[in-house]
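Honest question from a wet-lab person: if I give you the sequences of every part of a complex, can you actually get the arrangement of the whole thing, not just the pieces? Trying it with mine:
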Amino acid sequence: MLFRSVTAALLAALFCAAPAAAQDHHHGAAAPPAPGDTARWTKADADFMSGMIGHHAQAIAMSRLAPTHGASATVQNLASRIINAQQDEIRTMQLWLRDRRQPVPEAVAGPMRMTMNGVEHEMLMPGMLTPAQMQELDAARGRDFDRLFLTYMIQHHRGAVSMVQQLFSSWGAGQDETVFKFASDVNVDQTTEIARMQRMLADLIFATPSP
Amino acid sequence: MHFLSRPRAWALALALSSAAALAPAAAQAPNPDPRIGLRAGLHDAGEAVWNLRVLSKTPPPPDFVGKTNSDLAFTGRYAIQGNYNGWQIWDISNPARPALKTAYVCPASQSDVSVYRNLLFISGEGLTGRLDCGIQGVQDTVSRDRLRGLRIFDISDIEHPRNVGNVQTCRGSHTHTVLADPKDPENVYVYISGSAGVRSPNELAGCVRAAPNEDPNSALFRIEVIKVPVAHPEQAAIVSSPRIFNDLAAPPRHGDSPADVAEAARVAAAARARGAYTVRVFGSERVAPPEFVNPLLDSIVKARGGTGAATAADSAALRGSIQAIVDRMFGDQQARRTGPTQCHDITVYPAMGLAGGACEGYGMLLDIRDPAHPVRIAAVADSNFSYWHSATFNNDASKILFSDEWGGGGQAKCRASDRHEWGADAIFTIADRRQMNFQSYYKMPAPQTSAENCVAHNGSLIPIPGRDVMVQAWYQGGISVFDWTDAAHPKEIAFFDRGPVDSTRIAGGGSWSVYWYNGVMVSSEISRGLDIFELTPSAFLSQNEIDAAKTVHVDYLNTQGQPHYVWPASFALARAYVDQLERSHGLTAARVGTVRQALQRAESASGAARRTALTTLATQITGYAAGSSDAAKVRTLAGAVRDLAGAR
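Yes, you can. This is the full assembly:
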């Protein structure tokens, strides 16, 4: 019975405070506008688009497990929607970066490489699952998969929402029309989806009447 | 001008439009669909046209080339078109030749527009909007130069708009809804919609982004109502911020009912009596199953260093904490705020005292008989909907249609591989002004390429009497006219589509919105400008029905405000009902012929002779109702003829 580990994960999730998003207070000069751009964009915009690609790729990897892991019809429908939406969003982000001659990450679930103080680090974006958590999800089947999938996807989506908040607290960021709309849409779509998944999780856990 | 890229499609469209106005009811859409495979291009893309006529295609003025056109509003002979760079005012008194009157540069995504008498309202949501309409943007995260909210301009002099007021709001305004209350003619009310992030309180005092259970002054979970004194628009201000989303228990989904909630409560009470654990989740009490409870008990035993079975003390400890555990599992959603934080669009239907709110994960029905204090009546949710975008009522408010902007409008969601229910419309019937019952989905049926952003977007009713017909924009999916009179089986009856702006990638384009305004359909084309169409007769729509629709005239139209259509007495109106009764076989062919001849004779007569002929005919038609399969419409026809007798 894997429910014990599910419960442990739930309890762990309960008591782990989300790390505060780092505030970027740099006032670097804005980059020149890209072709067709009507507004300036900043490094924070490019970092957001780059980081979100790997973030989305992991959501897709998680969702692809649903059909082969005995997920319920409801969870499979949700997983299909996540794959559809986030694949298209990855394409949007890659196109945006390519148009501005920025490095275009491949759509692979993994850490983002960031240079801090001249040293390169690999950092998981907020809310991303650790390899151990991915393995745990991959090992689950049926209702256990549903519970883990929903729990971890809620965590994952919350990470995306915090990335949006971090973006908009950066000087000069979000001026570009595409970035503003895309980030705002990520914020509301994933917030809405979090609310829906919470209901699904509640229905899943509390649906069975006592014998 | 080359209208069609494919001869076959052109011939097919011609054949259909030249066919008898009333072909057999089994008429079908063109097959293959001419919208498939259209040539790409900005101003020379291939086109597919079915059951409508293109009256004009007008490119944008210089300041707006390459900038995104947004929504439309109408007043008198003017169409007002929003754009991320400002707005344009077109004189469309000759719809074949729109004349630009004003191109006003004033950037603000997305510049949705509404108009009321001499006042023009424009929404600003993005971070680049400036109070001074400058084009340089605002880079600081906190700035007193920024405009996020509602701009108010006086357009008494249409060519020289004057900024007469601005109302700042915490989340800006993605769009807005104007509500004129006949009981309060000195003021007009504006509902603000939008879900962008909350501003810093350092930029706008009082803006709080915490959840309401953390801070009761939260800017989330409410809409702003702005009161605008018509004579003194500079005094416009927020007068209320009703929390129409408060305390929203789990909304009915398909199949849920109050009986289910009562049953859950009964089950929980019985379980509690047996000593089981119960918890309140999303507004209803539920039983916590053993597979949830037992691991928690084990954790408690382990935490106190014990072994073996849980003791009575362990059970008591869990009973005291299980609700808190569940509350934390489901975060702030569980506390009380079980609904969305904002609406994308609110459509007001003042004549009915109702509004439809498209609010993130929910479609809402609101009571707006007190304009300053809208109240939620009902809410529906749908797992196929990503983001409820807008609402449209049918004319008697017995139905409501919500659209889902899956992908936000910038993504291709009408590919052959995309599900029919995603990025679609959902149609509900409204029972007793209180309950919305799901009936069906409608989606523009032509598969689009991956290079075409496409999803359900803005549209309006067409005043075809006796039917529920709507025209809707689908971005690069074009415009689609469909009939939802049978709410369970919506059917497309006309369309216009172009090929992609760019076949190699999504370049924003297509129809942002299309609305019926005084006889024509006006479309805001995102990158190509302004398109105007008129309907043409077909197997699905007769010339009389079109003529009757054209008798309905409105002085102005705001697309988040739905007018109530009332048809003046006319021969076209009567003939429209006759055509419908023929199509539905509500009258025999012989009786249809009799009525048509009688109408023709009456139209040729005048004065008392005409009145007598029409009165006699009305009585005769009333007699037909008894044997008809569509008695209601026969009686409606009789009423239309009788009204005609009383007309001057």
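Two things worth pointing out. Residues 312-329 of chain B form the longest helix (18 residues). Chain B touches chain A through 65 residues (CB under 8 Å).
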